[in-house]
Amino acid sequence: DNMAQYGDWFERISYVLANYNRIPGDIISTERERNFIIENIKTVHHEYTVSDGYSHAIIMGIVASILNILARSIETRYVEDANDTESRFGEILRFINRNLTDKSKIKLPALADRFGISQSYFSEYFKKQSSDSLASYIVKSKLRLAETKILHTDLSLKEIAYQLDFTDSSHLARAFKKHYKMTVSEFRAQGGNVCRAA
Q1: For residue range 103-138, what is the model confidence (pLDDT) as tens digits?
Q2: DSSP letter string over 113-170?
Q3: For 6-39, how does the pLDDT look when each residue is reduced to its tens digit (9 = 90+)?
């Protein structure tokens, strides 16, 4: 189903756009991956030009591969950056960012159970590692995805709020203004050109 494929692509693109600037340096960690992406972009262009009966499927496969490589590189860097202090914390960040739209997986009890940390200590542990509370980190991560959807889609604020599991559009709008010190409309008008909080 092409629509499902495109939906999955956009969620991957949203993830990459929302997180690439949170990590210093280049998100492509190896020359092999860089060359793979370059050659495959050339192949996409060639297939688009040729456009025979196989081209559509080939292009879809290549785009999916490139997006997955970018997403994997970002996730790997999360883990590597956290390894300086606590390797398990990198895995926690990666898990949260992969499951931002599934509230049941990123609630404190579920996270504590998954990563073998007592519920009573988990919040303290998270804040010690990130200097941010779990709830605040999740909201900020969701807002980064909201940024991408606000700037690059025609979705209404209500639809974005629903996708990111905010209570409603007003809840999203309040959280957005609190974090960015501007309204969604002002953010869109400036093309996302704001100084983002950490």
Answers
A1: 899 999 999 999 999 998 999 999 988 888 999 999
A2: HHTT--HHHHHHHHHHHHSS-HHHHHHHHHHHHHHHHHHH----HHHHHHHTT-SSHH
A3: 566 656 666 665 555 554 456 676 788 888 888 8
| Cα 71 to Cα 14, 48, 63, 124, 158, distances in angstroms | 10, 24, 12, 29, 27
**Packed helices 87-98 and 134-152: angle between N→C axes, nearest 10 degrees:** 40
Q: Torsions phi, psi of 153, nearest 5?
A: -135, 170
Q: Which ranges constitute the DSSP H helices of the chain?
A: 2-19, 31-50, 55-82, 87-98, 103-106, 108-114, 119-130, 134-152, 157-163, 169-180, 184-189
Distances in whole angstroms, Cα of residue 144 to Cα of each of 15, 17, 54, 100, 133:
9, 8, 36, 11, 17
Cα gap 103→110, rounded to integer Å: 10
| 79 closest CA partner among 35, 29, 41, 116 | 29
- Structure-token pair, residue 128: 């010690």
Q: pLDDT by residue (tens digit) across 36-95?
A: 888 888 888 888 888 888 888 888 888 888 877 877 776 666 556 555 555 678 788 888
Distances (CA, A) of 118 to 92, 95, 111, 125: 14, 17, 10, 10
C-beta separation of 195 from 157 below 8 A? no
pTM of the model: 0.62
